[in-house]
Amino acid sequence: MDIERQFRVQDLLARYADSLDGGRFEEWPEYFTEDCVYKIISAENFERDLPLGVIDCDSRDMLRDRIMALREANIYEDHRYRHILSTTLIKRVEDDTIYAETAYQVTRIMRDGSAMIFSTGCYYDRILEEDGALKFAERLVVFDSRGIDTLLVIPL
Q1: Confidence (pTM)
Q2: 52 Cβ partners below 8 Å, 6+ apart?
Q3: Helix, strand and coil percent figures for the chain, each rounded to 5
Q4: Rounded CA gap, 119 and 1, in Å?
Q5: Has residue 147 got a pLDDT over 90?
Q6: Domain for residue 148, yes or no?
Q7: Is 50 a domain residue?
C-alpha cells in the first residue's frame, strides 16, 4: 500500500465534500480535469450497464454551468448537505490513473433545521494528477435507491 497516495486521495475527497458542505460551490469544478465525466446514476442502472444518469456532465465547463444555474436560475428551498465518507479503497493503479471507491452518505439539512438522509451510495472515481494536484477525471456517483428526490440541486 502506498500511504502517501492513500492520504492524497482521501484529502481530495475530504476537500471536495468540505466545499459542497460549506456552500462553496464555485470550488467544485476545480476538483475535476477539463475533460471530465461527472454522472449521478442509480445503482439499478449502473448494475445493468444502462448509461442514463440523473445528472450527466462531460466537461468542467458543464460543471460550471450547473453551478451558475444553481446560483442564478434554479428556484429551490434553501438547504445544505453534510457528507459522511467511508475510508477510500484504492482498487488499482494503472500508469498514472488511480481507480478508487468510497461509500458516502449525504444528509440534507433544511432551513428549519430538519434533517434527513438524502442519498447513500458509492463514488467510483478515476483520478489523475494534474499540475501536482489530484483531480477527478471521472466521478460516478451511484446512489442506492431506485429514485432520487426532485430537489437534487447541489452536486453530491
Answers
A1: 0.93
A2: 41, 45
A3: 30, 45, 30
A4: 30
A5: no
A6: no
A7: yes
